[in-house]
Specification:
This protein is an alpha/beta fold and 743 residues long. It has 4 domains: 2-54, 2-Layer Sandwich (Phosphorylase Kinase, domain 1), CATH 3.30.200.210; 64-126 and 380-438 and 466-557, Rossmann fold; 151-326 and 565-589, Dimethylsulfoxide Reductase, domain 2 (3-Layer(aba) Sandwich); 598-722, Barwin-like endoglucanases, CATH 2.40.40. Helix content is 31%, strand content 15%. It has 26 helices and 26 strands. The strands form 7 sheets. The protein has a 7-stranded mixed beta sheet with strand order 5-4-17-16-15-6-7, with helices on one face. Strands 21-25-22-24-23-26 form a 6-stranded mixed beta barrel. A 4-stranded parallel beta sheet has the order 11-10-9-13, with helices on both faces. Strand 10, helix 8 and strand 11 form a beta-alpha-beta unit. The radius of gyration is 25 Å and the shape is globular. The structure holds ligand MGD (2 copies), iron/sulfur cluster and molybdenum atom. Molybdenum atom binds at residues 105, 132, 136.
Length: 743
């Protein structure tokens, strides 16, 4: 028996884990790592199931090649030869623009995904680049890009020191936090209240997070920008503004905010005017306050405006870049610019709908258009890395059909699932336990400065490829170097680029060195480890990979400190309170100041033992409370005459689903979790708990204009009685509350 340490790779909370393995290297138990300075032993049911997830018998172990509807196992060389033939064939016939790439959610967590996204995108030479970003957080990047001049200037609530936390459209008690890495988020919320602070949650559902708060307010889906504008209006009208950082555009902001009075927005957003005024006063009066928002508002109409207004309120109340307010973490690695600086968007546009690029990406919501619409530049091939678009994208079934029409598709994915079944070749990454891990992205949004590296717990088997090698070989094929090119060739090129930057940074350990001299200093067992070592040595704490290896439980690098001056990149150096780029959206929002007629509105829901589309194949994570049901208020159940099931119809599709009457949801709103719809899947456990695809109902024709982001929340739907589909189990009406446990 032995114990290994590893960061959990599943969600944004980056919990440290202690893994016990038996003599056959089978995982016996996974517990929280009490010696991790950030997570301090916290673990959730998913982390505790990591061994079962990792050892899933349905996981692919070798490449798969499809002919018609027949799959067969293949060797790596043969698989890469098939990729070269398929991909280069499409490029020869239709040009490089006919190739698209999608980088799914796990690519934000894995070293293979993070370090090789750039090289693969560049060697493909296409602007048809898509990621989970445009079905998630792109509005945040655009908003901070416009305000601070850098699309990565993302602040986090200083959770452990704040005295007042306003949460809109996030449910960290179940999601464990997002764009805010805070293991044991629920515990941190409890501590906030225990020290006399206040928490207010604004959400169309009274969530578990709301249960941990002092106050919960229902908001009509898609209207948070109105509510926030009224907060801004009140702060300005009542002279409650404290500016602690240099700003520009206050007068323009005042003009924008004028029509959005609490009285004008209240009937539209559903939050009483008196509560809005009180919230503004409380935020202004709190010794330190933070406003935090995530998916609920990012994937709703006016997503970018909402993210902007959140940071406007944080700035106006004097809480930007201040302890207890919202702060910019200082990661251990060299901060690499991602996206243009100063920030700009629309450097190119999508072919069919002319949507602007943002952060180098085009909207996932228009990928089906690009595949279906003939003409020069039509997408004919797709490289999908760690994505399950059939279930994750708006109007997923349409996109799935489009995938079936591609001339070539290759997926890097451990599963044959709803999306990868359309691939010609599937290249499986190794098990999580076999991969080194470093959260290059998530460690930029931690609530304390912190770092931790995890070496692989288990070695690769002979002949098995790491995810990094798979990515490198795909990049080399795309670059024309062929199916047998040595991945080290690409690694050395990337490392050389990094060191090239390093030799020019005065004061860096590589300054003034020859590249070979600098390269000789690096230590690491693989390409991404060497890249990481370089980035750590170039980082602000002077760390290195060997140093991190000596600290397997992670290193606390101290509380967050003010550093706006280091991250801001606007022309004037001031925070732009009223970027002109937002004007058209503000005008469009003004037109929403009319009391809405009331169709039912659909929103999403995350479940504690789930993670998007890919954890439903683990028996301990499905069943019980983790079922795909429609939450609906009992008044609506009665009004609509529903029995056990409902037919839900939207502009794009319809489905029949079991209902779960629930007092906690706002009347007029229904909620369906996403990532389900596994009927007929090759993942056997998932197929036995199929659920329905919520994205059959979401619309791919509406996007957030500024970011291209999908609008999942607030889709108008009709709900009608329906009989239970034959053979379906009766729905579970009682949510089973799981204890959130620690080590
Ligand atoms: N209606 C609705 N739709 C949504 C959302 C919503 O709230 N409502 N949420 C959206 C959000 S926030 C996101 S991030 C997206 C996520 O959507 P996707 O980007 O499609 O990600 P997942 O659904 O997590 O699917 C991950 C895929 O990666 C594979 N995978 C798992 N681990 C690894 C690995 O280590 N390496 C590789 N190569 N593959 C791996 C899995 O088998 C799976 O196929 O969904 C979005 N879709
Ligand atoms: N257990 C679990 N954890 C996860 C995931 C998972 O699938 N399951 N997915 C991971 C991923 S990819 C992400 S991006 C994060 C997301 O992390 P969160 O953003 O915290 O996740 P959600 O649970 O989607 O929270 C969104 C909340 O917004 C509410 N909402 C919906 N529409 C609106 C609206 O218009 N206005 C307001 N104010 N609220 C609204 C919903 O009711 C919900 O409570 O979670 C991550 N962690
Ligand atoms: S909250 Fe759970 S899934 Fe997320 S990192 Fe921690 S243990 Fe893993
Ligand atoms: Mo996400």
């Amino acid at each position: 028996m032995r114990t290994a340490h590893r960061t959990c790779p599943i969600c944004d909370a980056v919990c440290g884990l202690r893994i016990e393995l038996d003599d056959n290297e089978k995982v016996l138990s996974v517990r929280g790592d009490a010696d991790d300075p950030l997570s301090k032993g916290y673990i959730c049911p998913k982390g505790a199931s990591l061994g079962r997830i990792d050892e899933d018998p349905d996981r692919l172990r070798v490449p798969m090649i499809r002919t018609g509807d027949q799959w067969r196992e293949a060797g790596w060389d043969e698989a890469f030869e098939a990729v070269e033939q398929g991909l280069m064939g499409v490029i020869d016939r239709h040009g490089r623009q006919s190739v698209a790439a999608y980088f799914g959610n796990p690519t934000f967590h894995t070293m293979g995904g993070i370090f090789y996204r750039g090289p693969l995108s560049q060697s493909l030479g296409t602007t048809n680049l898509y990621s989970a970003g445009t079905i998630d957080q792109l509005p945040k990047h655009v908003a901070v890009g416009l305000m601070f001049g850098s699309g990565t200037a993302i602040s986090v609530p200083d959770l452990d020191r704040t005295e007042y936390l306003l949460i809109l459209g996030a449910n960290p008690a179940e999601s464990h936090g997002s764009l805010c890495a805070a293991p044991d988020f629920p515990g941190r919320l409890k501590a906030l209240r225990a020290r006399g602070g206040k928490i207010v949650v604004v959400d169309p559902r009274r969530t578990r997070t709301a249960d941990l708060a002092d106050e919960h307010l229902f908001v009509r889906p898609g209207t948070d920008s109105l509510l926030l504008f009224a907060l801004v209006h009140t702060l300005l009208a009542e002279d409650l503004v404290t500016l602690r950082v240099e700003t520009e555009g206050l007068e323009e902001l005042r003009a924008h905010a004028r029509p959005f009075t609490p009285a004008a927005v209240a009937p539209v957003c559903g939050v009483p005017a008196g509560d809005i005024v009180r919230l503004a006063r409380e935020l202004a009066a709190a010794p330190a306050a933070a406003v935090y928002t995530r998916m609920g508002t990012s994937t709703a109409d006016f997503g970018t405006l909402t993210q902007w207004l959140v940071d406007v309120v944080n700035t106006l109340t004097g809480n930007l870049d201040r302890p207890g307010g919202v702060m910019f973490p200082k990661p251990a690695t060299l901060e690499m610019p991602w996206g243009p600086r100063p920030f700009t968007s629309g450097r190119w546009h999508s072919r069919v709908k002319n949507y602007p690029e943002a952060m180098g990406e085009l909207p996932v919501a228009t990928l089906a258009d690009e595949i279906e619409t003939p003409g020069e530049g039509q997408v004919r091939a797709l490289i999908s890395i760690a994505g399950n678009l059939a279930l994750s994208a708006p109007n997923g079934p349409r996109l799935a059909d489009a995938l079936g029409d591609l001339e070539f598709m290759v997926c890097v994915d451990p599963y044959l699932n709803e999306t990868t079944k359309y691939a010609d070749v599937i290249l499986p990454p190794p098990r999580m336990m076999q991969m080194p891990h470093y959260d290059l992205l998530l460690l930029t949004v931690t609530v304390r400065n912190y770092t931790r590296f995890s070496p692989p717990v288990l070695p690769l088997e002979p002949g098995q490829l790491s995810e990094a090698e798979i990515m490198a070989r795909l990049s080399l094929i795309a670059a024309g170097a062929g199916a047998h090119a040595d991945p080290a060739q690409l690694d050395e090129a990337v490392i050389g680029q990094l060191l090239g930057i390093g030799t020019q940074i005065p004061g860096s350990p590589f300054h003034g060195m020859e590249l070979t001299e600098a390269r000789a200093l690096l230590e690491g067992d693989s390409g991404p480890e060497l890249m990481l070592d370089a980035m750590l040595r170039l980082g602000p704490y002077g760390l290195s990979l060997p140093e991190l290896r000596r600290n397997p439980n992670g290193l606390d690098l101290g509380p967050l400190e003010p550093r706006l001056a280091e991250v801001i990149d606007t022309e004037s150096g001031a925070v732009r309170l009223a970027p002109v780029e937002l004007d058209p959206e503000i005008e469009r929002l003004g037109a929403r100041l009319v009391t809405p007629t009331a169709p039912m509105l659909l929103i999403g829901r995350r479940q504690l033992r789930s993670n998007n589309s890919w954890l439903h194949n683990v028996p301990s994570l499905v069943g019980g409370s983790n079922r795909c049901t429609l939450h609906i208020h009992p008044d609506d159940v009665a009004r609509l005459g529903l029995d056990t099931h409902a037919r839900v119809t939207s502009a794009t599709g319809d489905l029949v689903v079991a209902i779960e009457p629930n007092e906690a949801i706002m009347p007029g709103v229904v909620s369906l979790p996403h990532g389900w719809g596994h009927a007929g899947s090759a993942q056997r456990t998932a197929a036995a708990h199929p659920g329905v695809n919520a994205n059959a109902l979401t619309d791919d024709s509406t996007i957030d204009a500024l970011s291209g982001n999908a609008v999942f929340n607030g889709a108008p739907v009709t709900v009608a009685p329906a009989p239970a589909p034959e053979g379906e189990e009766p729905p579970v009406h009682e949510p089973v509350l799981l204890p959130v446990f620690a080590a």
